[in-house]
Amino acid sequence: MAAAWIGFAGGVTAALVSAFVAFRQTRMAEQMTKLKSALDAEVHRADALFDRDLQAEQVLTRYRQPLAAAAFDLQSRLYNILRQGLFDAYGSDPRRGEEVLRTTVFRLAQYFGWTEILRRDIQFLSFPEDEETRRVSKLQSDITKCFLSDGYGQALMIWSDEQRAVGERMIAEEHGKVLCMGYARFSDRFEDTFASWRERLRSELPQESARGRLRDVQHLLCELVETLDEREIYYPHDLERA
Fold this sequence. Notes:
- Mean pLDDT is about 85; it is low at about 45-50.
- The protein contains 7 helices and 2 strands, in the order αααααββαα.
- The chain has a two-stranded antiparallel ribbon.
- Helix 3 (about 95-125) crosses helix 6 (about 185-205).
- It is mainly α.
- It has a domain at about 65-230.
């Protein structure tokens, strides 16, 4: 009788152990499944971030040189106006004065154009994490704010919508590529599309508040050029500030 009870107890114990082992295995399997799912999600998120950063780098690489060139041309013109007296030297000459005004409008519009092209591509990358792209976007944002701020007064205050509108009018497509129109096409369209900006420059540029605004813009443009051309392939990093 005792032997039977012992056998029964042993069977029950074995069944309990077996059930406990099966339970633990089931729990471990569930935990492993959850862990694998979490790891897969993390890998997917990391891959998505990497792909997004890569796309941001590719977009910036595509527009690096033309944006740097537009920023350099505009900062150079602003320096010549603020420090070299460009308008003072040629403003009284009807032909040269007109050309100075027109080319200044072109350089301003060209910068807004390339900025708008880059902004359109970058915005579809959902705020990329790439450090260099963030630096460029931050500088462009600072330049935009400098133009639109009323802290300098209203002279040459250009709201963000105005900046984008000018940029949009500069965008052209050639051979399937989106780019800014060149000076020849700009000149052809100048009287119909951009002449009002000539009058704004003519009337507002002499105001000291406008010169203060453009001085800060010029400094930011120099920083943007130096960021875009970090290896000094096209431009030196000792650009003179106005």
